[in-house]
Amino acid sequence: xxxxxxxxxxxxxxxxxxxxxxxxxxxxxxxxxxxxxxxxxxxxxxxxxxxxxxxxxxxxxxxxxxxxxxxxxxxxxxxxxxxxxxxxxxxxxxxxxxx
Length: 99
What we know:
It is a single chain. The protein is mostly helical and 99 residues long. The protein is 57% helix and 4% strand. Helix 2 (31-38) crosses helix 3.
């Protein structure tokens, strides 16, 4: 497995993979700040990040809105590739279509 791969062994008890921890780290946001913004306990954010807890649909949308991303960019039933890989893959396929 490459170093850039996300943890793909298991999604946790919730059955969902997510990139909440990565998004928080990229933006310098603590668990408490995210928790306050979406109205949950900071421990809930930890449970979500580890995959021990699956968010309600409402909470998933609140988290997505907070980060300014679509829900499917944050949560998935399949292992998530790094966002940079997804962006580069879609831009390269768009360039191939223009040739």
